[in-house]
Amino acid sequence: MNAVLEQVQLEQVGAEFSEAPMLMVRDKTRKIIHEIAARCQPGMVEEDAVAIAKEILAANKMLRGWHDVYVRFGSNTTRTFGADSEPGVVLKENDIMFVDIGPVFEKWEGDGGDTFVFGNDADMTRCAEDARKLFHIVRRKWLSDASTGKVLYEFAVSQAQAMGWELNLDLSGHRLSDFPHAAIYEGPMADVDFCPSPLLWVLEIHIRHPKLNYGAFFEDMLLQDAFFE
User: Fold this and answer.
1) 10 Å Cβ neighbour count for 210?
2) pLDDT tens digits, the chain, 229 residues: what are they?
3) SS3 for 203?
4) Is residue 119 part of a domain?
5) Alpha-carbon separation of residue 32 from 35, 55, 61, 194 (angstroms)
6) Fewer beta carbons within 10 Å, N or C terminal of the chain?
7) Domains in the chain: how many in total?
8) Cα–Cα dist 36/132, whole Å
9) How far apart are CA 138 and CA 98, in angstroms?
10) Range of the domain at 217
């Protein structure tokens, strides 16, 4: 398929799409992620954290979730999108967790994720920091080189390895829109042969420790530097 034609097709939006509401939903999504994390404490079982997350989203008038609510503790942070968590995992005093939500507010889709560390494990702290750092390394390559989705994730794999982590390519970016983006394209950004447009795509970074049973996750919209200051 012609790359220009493919991009036009895969980046279609609805009549309600515009920058302001998409950014509003992005900001609301990121705020809620931190609200959820603030309610999580060592000794809590993961299932209770998921229930709290759903309560917070409902209180913020989430219309629906276009994907399930994920709060992953400890060993479950290695699990990929859509995989069930091992039940009964308790957040420890020195531990790692991440939140991944895909809320729909009014007519617009949001998506975001971040990782949080409890206690003083230096390697877990570095893992969480490196997930965010790698997100921005890849995002800046998108900005500077107008790289395709495929190139961005090939680059992400090599950069993750250089940092001492394994990148999970099952989580490799996707569309967002003002209507179910899956009606247009539900595949990964890592498969596209064009430079993804801002506001329309989410960049996902899920890294895992090569030997130990934990990982970290960060995702946000592909946007210019000013939106991260």
Assistant:
1) 9
2) 466 779 999 999 999 999 999 999 999 999 999 999 999 999 999 999 999 999 999 998 876 667 889 999 999 999 998 899 999 999 999 999 999 999 998 889 999 999 999 999 999 999 999 999 999 999 999 999 999 999 999 999 999 999 999 999 999 999 999 989 888 999 999 999 999 999 999 999 999 999 999 999 999 999 999 999 7
3) strand
4) yes
5) 5, 11, 11, 32
6) C
7) 1
8) 18
9) 20
10) 17-228
The model's pTM: 0.95
The CATH number given to whatever domain includes residue 72 is 3.90.230.10
Contacts for 35 with CB less than 8 Å, ≥ 6 apart = 56
What lies within 8 Å, CB to CB, of 64 at 6+ separation is 103, 104
Residue 192 maps to a domain: yes
Q: Which helix (H) or strand (E) holds 21?
A: helix 19-38
| Residues 207 and 166: beta-carbon distance below 8 Å | yes
Paired tokens of 168: 């999970």
Residue with token string 């890849």: 138
